[in-house]
Design goal:
Length: 168
């Protein structure tokens, strides 16, 4: 098992590396406000979570990697949310509208037949576009549990929708 080294106090890390962290996040995200959010989120995690630092790299290099990864995750989440917010083009075909409406009704009905946890993770991931770490924080669950619940929820939702489709 690898030994983890003690990090300097987060306040010292923050004072020393905040500007560089903001610069990294701004370059990746292209948005100063979102960059500030990512920086705050990273330093909050360093304060309140058990963070492993193995000392194989300098603290600045280690923090740089965390900032890059966190910024990329934020960018991916923004893109997912953007896709969900793109308005659908209206379809002039009444039959297609009816089929879409029916599929939507079946989906919503099937969703109500899942456990509360599966409903929550599916809604947050598939309908809201949140990342695994974001969902884990919101639901106060380990990230692995979120991934597992999402997989099981998707499988169960597909089963319920298939059986509903066969019944109808």
């Amino acid at each position: 098992m690898e030994a983890t080294l003690a990090l300097p106090p987060v306040s010292v890390l923050y004072e020393k590396h905040r500007r560089q962290a903001l610069s990294i996040a701004r370059r990746i995200l292209g948005d100063a406000d979102e960059a500030e959010d990512v920086v705050q989120d990273v330093f909050s995690k360093l304060c309140f979570q058990d963070v492993r630092f193995d000392g194989k790299a300098a603290t600045s290099t280690w923090l740089h990697r965390i900032m890059v990864n966190s910024s990329i995750n934020s960018l991916r989440a923004r893109k997912r949310r953007g896709k969900l917010e793109t308005p659908l083009q209206p379809v002039d075909d009444p039959e297609a509208n009816t089929l879409d409406s029916e599929r939507h009704r079946i989906f919503l009905e099937a969703l109500t037949q899942l456990s509360e946890q599966h409903q929550s993770v599916l809604t947050l991931r598939e309908l809201r576009g949140f990342s695994y770490p974001e969902i884990a924080r919101m639901l106060n669950l380990p990230e692995g549990t979120v991934k597992s619940a999402l997989n099981r929820g998707r499988t169960r939702l597909a089963e319920v929708m298939r059986s509903s489709d066969q019944d109808g």
